[in-house]
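Sanity check

After download, print the first record. It should look like this:
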Amino acid sequence: MEGPLSKWTNMVHGWQYRFFKIENDTLLYYTSREKMLKGQQRGQIRLSGAVVGIDGENNSLFTITVEGKTFHMQGRDLRERNQWVRILENTIRASSGYAKNGSVGTTPSQHFKQKTEEANEFLKTLVDKVKELEQLKNGEKAVDEKKTIDSLIAASNNLTNNVKHAIIYLQMAQARLDPNMKTDKLMFTHPDLDEKPSSRVETVSDSTQTHSSATTEKPISGIQHLDHLKPQRAESYASSDEEEFYDADEELIDLDKFENEKSGPESGDSERRGDGAIMSSDEDGFDFGDSHEDFDEIYNNAEEHDIGNVQQEHGSVLMHLLSQVSVGMDLTKVTLPTFILERRSLLEMYADFFAHPDLFIATNGIDSAEKRMISVVRYYLNAFYAARKSGVAKKPYNAILGETFRCRYTVPNSPISGRKTENGPWPGSDENQLTFIAEQVSHHPPISAFYAEMPSEGISFNAHIYTKSSFLGLSIGVASIGEGILTLHNYDDEQYTITFPSGYGRSIMSTPWFEFGGKVKVVCEKTGYYADIEFLTKPFFGGKPHRIQGTICREGVKKPILTVRGEWNGTMYAKPQHGEEYVFVDVKSKPEVKKECVPVMQQGKRESRRLWRHVTAALLRNRIQTATTSKRFIEQRQRKEAKERLESGEKWTPLLFDTTDKEGEWIYKQKLGVRKAL
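Expected structure tokens:
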């Protein structure tokens, strides 16, 4: 393929028009078509081992990253950008030896066989060299010299472990590509590899784990047969609308045996409670090694640690995942590795939007429609930092169908009234408390619905969000499709319709970080006021991340009544049409209010904290294998339930939320306005 593109060059500080042509595994570029025809190239980019990325907000930009350098390109439009991305991806695959349909070079199976043989030969040499070092150490040497040899042996052993990992993954990939290959014949071929099962042996990890040379839960030593290690995929899933997201090659848990081993007189019994939780016996028949844990205390520990450099710490898992996806691919049916999970469900993350309940209710009591709109926007912009306080690019657990989460907040400096609610999100709560409830109402597509209210203030918020994730090359984008409606019941049910920004996990090949991006709106049709806000993604060159800019306007008025700028995770400023700029929101000026939840072991089986408690405890203790196993159990059980519903013809009906005539909308059944009307 050949054609013009814009290429960014720092030398002249801007975009330069260049003509590009692909020859073999190289992208050549020229300053004009004439020079391209004459072969007078300006430069070239080697595509072997390159990674193509796209921008989630700009439809014409894309990047090529190779050998630590990133080249920024721009097509004329989305169609041209996508055409180049597809061609580049195919070329990169071909140059790496795994072109589709074997159209270029060797077949994938032949390529992996060749690489496996090369790695085995290297491993033999490496093991022999380590033995020579050990023999050298046994001779008469000075203390300093022996220390140097010890360091060399330790480094060589680490390298040996890495090579063995590489061989395992090559064998897995080869077995996946060649269905006729016998997995029980895959093994390391050097006889010395089983001599010291504790000194040079590491755990072989699957596609959802990390690995290390330290002592782990399941050490695998010596000549390693792979008949019990099924070839792993990057957790790509079946297409049935009733199927759970799962890896078809995972080692499955025997659910029938699990159910039979449950302890307690009520094993197997379950029923739905009025608040949406499902009551049933505990999963104590399956030992996750956390019976001693205080789960409530674990959930109170909200601190998240950086993932670190993914390429260095989880490189093999990451590269295995990246080899299975393409730029622009929908990741809805791809489960990402366990090590990137944060310790909360998606439903609980939505509850954190209300961690400043005083700002949520501040709009009530304001006589001016203009000031009410400003107050709503202030609450809205302040809510994101509490929900995404950590800059770590981790993702919450994907909520399963029927999962619920509920909590409540006590408003600072607001006395308890003594009047209890009889229904709503948390019956029995004080009317001066903000209560919240959420339910996963759909699995395909994944839709979460949530609702919050404070009866004494006559204010409620109802929302539904469909999360759609996409692979962008060097980033992962998550679009939040849906809307929320904030209702002021004391103002003749005055409503504010709110949309949500997209989220982006950046730099997934190195040290990931998170940012928001995209345009959102806050609209009050009744008063005619509206806000246009943009979450600005970090520019390719220079500039700061996490910035926002926006305006608050009124229909029929040309100039905005207020402009807003700043950083959504820091300080934001507002400037009225006539007046000086002032601090609009400082998200770090006061702490979030701690949410109150039912103790974990008193919750229903499908309430978020109890449902995910084993995963959460294992992640906190960095027991990735245990977290993966527990997560796999939850996903597999959901898949089994979906299959049973499909076979019986049963249709899943959410308990707490109903659909409306408006497409995709979900409304809480016991919302404040409905209860007041009764």
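If your output differs, re-run the checksum step. Summary of this record's structure: The longest helix spans residues 143-177.
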